[in-house]
Amino acid sequence: MIEDLAEIRRHKEEAMNMPLKRRMEKLGHFNSCKFPECECRSYRPFPKQPPGPPTQQPELHLDEMCKHCNHSIHNHVHHLQKLPEEEQRKLLSIAIDAEHIYTCVRNERDPDSKDLYQILLRAMRNRLSLRHREYKFDDFFDSPPFEKPSLRKAMNNIIITRFGHLSRGESKVWREAANWILHLINKWVPETPRTRAKRTLAEKGDNDDAQCKQNYKLAYQRWLLFCHVPHFCDSLKAHNLVDIFGQRFMQQIFYVVRRQLTDKLESGELGVEIQPAEKRKEIIAHMLKLIPIFDVELHAFTSVCWDPDFGSHREQASTEKGGPSSRSRKRTSTSEKVTSKRGVAGEKRTGCDMKPPFLKRRHLEGDIDAELVRKTNDELDHVYGPALDEIAPGDVPRQEERQGVIQLHMVGNTVSPPTDEQTLEYLIALKQVFSYQLPKMPKEYITRLIFDTKHRTLALVKNKRVIGGICFRPFPMQGFTEIVFCAVMGDEQVKGYGTYLMNNLKDYNMKHNIYYFLTYADEFAIGYFRKQGFSQDIAFPRHRFAGYIKDYEGAILMGCPLDPRIAYSQSSDIIRRQKLLVAALIAKQQRKPKSFPGLTCFKEGVRFTPPEQIPGVAETGWKLPPAVAQQTHQDHLLRQILTSMRNYTPAKCFVEPVDEAYAPGYYDHIKFPMDFSTMSQRLKNKFYTHQRLFFADMIRIFENCRIFNEPDSEFVRYANVSQRQFLAKWKELGFAVPDCSVINE
């Protein structure tokens, strides 16, 4: 590859100052002969002087012959002589660039770069022969920009969402740090596809699939054509990497970019001097903090910073007539909204000024100080008792993993190199597990997918026997993985192996920059997938998976987003530590003295107040004695029954005591009268120490009615209906019906 740009520019300036006939000769090298039936593709002159350093350029005549076809140079360039001089100079510039590209084709050893140079050389020849008025690359590489938003726009969005609330001076420093990161990324030279494949195999022990390799090759050649080559071929329009590429390309290269940027910054290198030295140190410190933030946003599917419509609605609102002044807009910008395309399928959600998932939330009254949380968390590392790094008691699979009882193996069929014998044994065993546990799936279909080179399987081996696994197919460029089969042998189920497999699969996919799972689950698998975080509300854009995943009749599509901040395989330990942290914080809060206002009820004439109503008593952990608590619960249920009966229409005549003016002699015949009002008073006075007393009073109301009135009277019918209603309610609340001879159902 040509590196001496100054030499290239000098060569081009000399060519531009050549006489017209010499310029025509150079253009003739890239134009075929126009003589009828001549197949000569380019003009080649006869040698006029012996090899060696030229002493003087010989004079050129347009009637000189081509050594290939014996036709004059005029037959090669006569169609160019009619063009304006400006167009001729433009073609001459392209011709000189084509010579440099031809040198690159001869010297380049990387096959992918060489392919690109050959495509470019062919396009330059077509342009010089006037077949095309402009360069045509759409058939191979499309036109930039290739992704929206670009890296520059996304970085600006990150600064707005993360640091927009800071003062003007602080946010300016963050913007400068972001611009320096973009500058360094823009100057970065990506690995060739071959180099990247070798590094991936050496570091991860695993090759990317063919689709992933092809996607990176395309992105690399686009960078070479639109970003790198224009530096020494100025006939091509130059673009910046950060302006034409976006999230997908950055996810492929950021692993290496981050490592190299961090090493360079930690050594204090920027490539450009910044004065004064304090300013330089401040910029580098902010860059080192911003790089991991950018990494999180880069791989977070829920990040609004990669929304192409970020900020469009806010700009529109600020230009409307009658809108707030620039000063008020600055204050109210956080409440304005914009539509995002990353909402739930079928609807849009507001995204720009909605608080992203990684932003700090506003502190509320009663929040525990962050410094206290940090100190308490550090203290947990020094407490006496079981070590916190020990595996949680209920996590059986991880205990067995540490003991060497179970192992996980990522297996898949390959064509080149051939699959080893151990992997084939695992694949055959997995086929048997899936066939046995998924009887509705055809065995031929299971076999075809397991041995397909695009599918991989996470196998769970216990005591050298495969007991389960998850077969999946990753789609790196679409940003998701399809779960195809998931099963554990029946005698090994309900031990946590299914969760163990899924958690490790989540971690594996996040290492490969995939942050969403999709699967079709039948009625028997829905419960399992819900426990693993799957949902029927698919937040993943449909156009990115439609036509890629396999559809099953009678199954339900479910999805699961992956959070890059969570280590799923360590989730049980994380939850355990969180519980200990919460308990420690509660203990610290309880040790703090706290005062409550005094009682004011005695000023109102109250002589007694229940202990549970005293402010602060419940917070001390005091509880009612079991017997009192049970009685309180019973009174609540009895009051519920009594209220229901008072509202029951046929029982309205039993609400108040019987008026003797309407029923003469009633109290002569009825020795123990009863009504709902009297029962309410007794309930309030804690008379019903046992449920049987309440039951007896209620039945007495209906029995008194039957004793005093004629059997076929309207009041007796009301009593019978009301008693049946009472007994139904009594049984509904779980009370047993006493063995009582007066009950007349």
Automatic annotation (TrEMBL):
**Source domain of life:** Eukaryota
Q: Which InterPro entries match?
A: Acyl_CoA_acyltransferase, Bromodomain, Bromodomain-like_sf, Bromodomain_CS, GCN5, GNAT_dom, PCAF_N
UniProt entry keywords in alphabetical sequence: Activator, Acyltransferase, Bromodomain, Chromatin regulator, Cytoplasm, Cytoskeleton, Nucleus, Transcription, Transcription regulation, Transferase
Q: Which GO terms describe its molecular function?
A: histone H3K9 acetyltransferase activity
Question: What sequence ranges are listed for the domain Bromo?
Answer: 646-716
Which reactions appear under catalytic activity for this entry? L-lysyl-[histone] + acetyl-CoA = N(6)-acetyl-L-lysyl-[histone] + CoA + H(+)
Q: Where is this region: Disordered?
A: 313-357
Q: Which residues form the N-acetyltransferase domain?
A: 417-563
To which protein family does this belong?
Belongs to the acetyltransferase family. GCN5 subfamily.
Query: What is this protein's record name?
Result: histone acetyltransferase
User: Which organism was this protein described from?
Assistant: Galendromus occidentalis (western predatory mite)
